[in-house]
Amino acid sequence: MDWIVNLPRTTLEQWAVLAAVVDAGGFAQAAAGLNRSQSAVSYSVARLQEALGLALLAVEGRKSVLTSEGESLLARARALIKDFDTLESLARSLKKGWESELTLVVDAAFPRSRLLGIIAELQTTCPGTQIQLSDVVLSGAEQAIIEGVGDLVVTSRVPAGHLGDWILDVDFVAVARPDHALFQLGRDLTTDDLVRHVQAVVRDSGTSHPRDEGWLGAQRRFTVSSMDASLATIVAGLAYAWLPEHMLGELLQNGELRRLPMVSGASRKVSLHIVPVHPEALGPAARAATAAFRR
């Protein structure tokens, strides 16, 4: 025999049980979460430690905690558990054909008409797939990727460790109603001019690392929960804001809104990317959606 296969002495299930014990805070809690007896959970961890010849857990008071060796090994094992979960998800997807559900998480800056066109295309291409759509603002898209929420995410920032494809640039322009006090100054505006007036700011939908991107530090700010609410605030004459140019077409053309005359910074460009959250497990509906966004 010119080759040798070294069969593992431990199983992925044993590592998953150990992770459950650590995450749940004890054997009894893990047993309840895994729907197993406590003795079965204890036996699985004992066999794992026996196979390795290492103590992975140590008792401190009434709690079992990882040893330094256990901490190092479990960190590697978690990656394998995640990979195996992805593998099984892919198998389920292949067995079913089209996915039963597709979750899209889309930055609110993405053009609404284009998004609705993509949804319509998907309803024709994969009619048996239920499409779940979530709008997010600023870091909400990044958080969805990091936490593994959804299948495809359209984001302005691609988190480290993930890959995405550029799909389009969105131009944000500074606007206000024609009768806004800023226009009465009769000259190009500076930051000092703007901070004396109310700026409408869209609240970050992310909770882990929220951002105040675009806020100038105005003495008064009007915080809203969506781009549409921000636009309504501007049309009502209550504030100024930077908004996606694709939302403003008719309002600028008919004079309901005007671009603010700025010394600099009157517009800024935001690049949007599409990121597959679990690229190894993309089903046909997710691939069709990715192609539609790329077009």
Task: Explain the overall architecture.
This protein is α/β, with parallel strands linked by helices. It is built from ten helices and eleven strands. Helix 1 crosses helix 3 and helix 5 runs antiparallel to helix 10. The longest helix is centred in the first third of the chain and has 29 residues.
In short:
The chain is α/β, with parallel strands linked by helices and 295 residues long.
Structural class: alpha/beta
The whole-angstrom Rg is: 26 Å
| Share of helical residues | 25-40%
Give the integer mean of the pLDDT values. Answer: 87
Give the overall silhouette: elongated
For the biggest sheet, the summary is: 7 strands, mixed
Count of helical stretches: 10
Low-confidence parts lasting 5 or more residues at pLDDT below 50?
none
User: H/E element string?
Assistant: HHHEEHEHEHEEHEEHEHEEH
